[in-house]
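Problem: given the chain below (94 residues), write out its structure.
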Amino acid sequence: MILKGTKFQIKVWKYLKNIPRGKVKTYKQVAIGINRPKAARAVANACAQNPYAPKVPCHRVIRSDGTLGGFSSPGGTKTKQKLLKMEGYSLYKH
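Solution.
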């Protein structure tokens, strides 16, 4: 799959493809993972602009407080929660 976006977006989206099914990362963990530790908000924006969902699984990125955060695909956070549940992730595991 050829990704089209800014260099930063592509870096985020490539990182997201490596988050395993049923696992999540926080926006901050993704920012650290791409060597931009102060860019958590920019990571969230890149997720919001992701036209490749769910193949590029931005639904696997949540807020540091354990809540879902946003989801810009149709259905919003209900869809995000459904996708995570289908993958075996429970928001209440913590």
